Amino acid sequence: MELDEKEWIVSYKFKINSYVILSNKNQMSFRLPLSTRQHFFAQRISLSSFRAFSTHRLTRTCPSCSKPLPTSLPACPNCWSIWNIPSDTSYHAIFALPKDSNPFVIDTALLKQRFRQMQATCHPDTWASRGLDKQDAAHALSSAVNHAYQTLLQPMPRIEYILSANGNPMEETDKLEDNEFLMDIMTAREEIEMADTVEEAEPVIRENQALIDDTVSEIELLVEEQRWPEAKQAGIRLKYLDGIRKAAMEKS
């Protein structure tokens, strides 16, 4: 059946927005270019608008075949159904991380383990023989999981995510209210730039890492106590220190 332009736009919007399972009985009667299809699925599964501390939990049972799911991801290798992550799901919930009063404290070993398991489940190659729609959905799901993983893995993007979720986003125009700290940052950058080798920059690298560790510990306490303005200032300091770390890595 051929659809006119208005009909297929409405049909496609309904399919994307109605939280459906992509199963064999749910095939579209038309094809869009690959990049366009991936764009639609990515928009639906995109994690950028997720609320960090929602109470939503992902189901561990496939609603299509009722079999247990291998991970918390909405992808079933038993009946080959794949569907969207609800938009109110937090990055923490995606990986089924243990509940903790402090979302900044992450078991990174557990995070890495679950990330590997999830990527095996939703890798686009795994879904390649199941139709273009499902492969597109797997591609978007895999990208979304990777983004959530990279956000939670390191302290800097993690605190940015947490601050944003709690109404205190870090902005490019943010100013640090610590002139002495800024002078120390400028001095450290000059010393790294003057160093010819990573060995010459080693004293600065060690001192900077000690400051990073202290700042991360400070952020843990501030997030625990939900002191968001102070946590944001500490996050800004961490961003400067992380910049020093990256500059030093370029010497290696």
TrEMBL record:
Entries under SUPFAM superfamilies matching the protein: Chaperone J-domain, HSC20 (HSCB), C-terminal oligomerisation domain
Gene3D superfamilies referenced in this protein's UniProt entry, alphabetically: DnaJ domain, HscB, C-terminal domain
Keyword Chaperone belongs to the record: yes
Origin: domain of life: Eukaryota
GO cellular component, one term: mitochondrion
UniProt cross-references to InterPro entries, sorted A to Z: DnaJ_domain, HscB, HscB_C_sf, HscB_oligo_C, J_dom_sf
Keyword vocabulary terms for this entry: Chaperone
Name of the protein: J domain-containing protein
Organism for this UniProt entry: Lentinula lateritia
Family: Belongs to the HscB family.
